[in-house]
Amino acid sequence: MESPLQFKHILPVQLRFSDVDQFGHVNNSVYFSLYDLAKTTYIHDVMGRLLDLEKEAIVVANVSANFVSPIYYSDNVAIETTVVHFGTTSFRLEQQAVDVNTHNVKCTCTTVMVYYDLKSQEPMPISDAFKMAVCKYEGHPID
Amino acid sequence: MESPLQFKHILPVQLRFSDVDQFGHVNNSVYFSLYDLAKTTYIHDVMGRLLDLEKEAIVVANVSANFVSPIYYSDNVAIETTVVHFGTTSFRLEQQAVDVNTHNVKCTCTTVMVYYDLKSQEPMPISDAFKMAVCKYEGHPID
Amino acid sequence: MESPLQFKHILPVQLRFSDVDQFGHVNNSVYFSLYDLAKTTYIHDVMGRLLDLEKEAIVVANVSANFVSPIYYSDNVAIETTVVHFGTTSFRLEQQAVDVNTHNVKCTCTTVMVYYDLKSQEPMPISDAFKMAVCKYEGHPID
Amino acid sequence: MESPLQFKHILPVQLRFSDVDQFGHVNNSVYFSLYDLAKTTYIHDVMGRLLDLEKEAIVVANVSANFVSPIYYSDNVAIETTVVHFGTTSFRLEQQAVDVNTHNVKCTCTTVMVYYDLKSQEPMPISDAFKMAVCKYEGHPID
């Protein structure tokens, strides 16, 4: 299966021996660590900095993943990430785990993330600076 | 938020210091380890045995989770699990992470699992024995 | 192998499917998560509270573990913990992972921990309150 | 602190957000995942192949680690690995986690590994092929 979406952000990930389960497959829960890593890197790459974790946070509200085929320890894997939608206080990311050698998609994942004010402990509107940085990075407008 | 679903299978889980991230929250990826643990335990409790991992496997095809509120290291958490639907080669599980003290739901999760023949590497029909064991355990018929 | 040391603090631990590696063994790195969990619980049980993590920390300076025999997912395991020595700013813990059913020792571990002032970022003398609480808990004096 | 030992094998490692604990430090147990990853890579690089995991295994008998200073998520870390001693059925590895930018040593680790026959479930003599491959890789004889 090849992917119809276009991804500009591609992060090669380093698998660990401890990621592999009894079947020789990378354990499902590890995928979410890798998606998380790619999200953090995406935001850093787009913003040119890490978030100011004293003030703001971007928290995961919903995750939905399709496991297409297993990942093995010897596989060369990258996580591809793109933002596909902006709401008022939330946005939607599409991600996929791809075999770098075959371009086969191993797993796809949709995540809804919420922009969060750490002081008030409430969702807050996504800043225009963040939206603009994402659109500039992706090279096209995003709904 | 209290849950509308009824869960018979309730597994208290033991959190680890390494499960907690920089915000003091249990990391998202850990939830899936806990859901996995509860699934494995559910199947064992329902079948009266572990799966014969030489022959058959039950693999996760799709996972969708809603993160309602954070879990802290000092929280007392249980994972509740029930089967809500049988297809031909797949079935659907509902799970939730619940604060044992307050009964607040921290996270809900729907999983589609596929019955898998390890020899042919193909999905196979869910056995009647498994369906019956689940219905007997749950105490009611399941679509 | 049975253990010569006496342990009063025994923490049954919950293994997770994701803890198991390709050989069906609990991965070595997981042992340290379990030892950490037992340390945190020990300190909580001895002190009657969690540490005030805004002010003080107890950090691991050195860990030395002997892996005696593998732990399997179906094993019933407990971590046993005791303090065997107090220095000025550090103390030594002995721990072991034990099969609850057979009493076989699976792994032993010695840890040197340092009492740490989070404000000055320097080691600080272990408080008499902590020493007394440990000796009272263990039921005998400790060098 | 700079290291007195010479390391030829240097593996840059990719940290994950889930590796970081409540103090913002990479959790102690994660170090052992990283050391494991570096060991597996070392053996692969030295032997030109992965081990034949159906027949032989190299298992960890003893691990001893000194935690010198914390690793932060934003640190650039590599694991350095070398073999320093061969016994009959075991050998000793030295490893260290190093800040790639400052060359500061964050943690050092000594591991005793045992060559293991999976069929007889007994330690077996280290093959001359393995010893020679290691010495050739390191560029000097090893006791």
Q: How would you describe what is shown here?
A:
- The structure is a homotetramer of 143-residue chains.
- With 143 residues, chain A is an alpha+beta fold.
- Chain A has a single domain, classed as Hotdog Thioesterase (Thiol Ester Dehydrase, Chain A, Roll).
- Chain A has two helices and six strands; from the N terminus they run E-H-E-E-E-E-E-H.
- The first copy, chain A, has helices at 28-47, 128-138, and strands at 9-13, 56-67, 77-86, 90-99, 105-117, 122-123.
- In chain A, strands 1, 2, 3, 4, 5 and 6 form a six-stranded antiparallel sheet that branches.
- The longest helix of chain A has 20 residues, at 28-47.
- Chain A is globular, with a radius of gyration of 16 Å.
- The model of chain A has no long low-confidence stretch (mean pLDDT 90).
- Chain A binds chain B through residues 22-23, 27-30, 32-33, 36, 53, 57, 59-67, and chain B through 22-23, 27-30, 32-33, 36, 53, 57, 59-67.
- Strand 2 (56-67) of chain A pairs antiparallel with strand 2 (56-67) of chain B.
For this structure, the quaternary state is homotetramer
CATH superfamily of chain A: Hotdog Thioesterase
Number of helices of chain A: 2
The low-confidence runs of chain A, each spanning 5 or more residues with pLDDT under 50, are none
- Average predicted local confidence, pLDDT of chain A: 90
Strand content of chain A: 35-45%
Overall outline of chain A = globular
| CATH fold-level name of chain A | Thiol Ester Dehydrase, Chain A
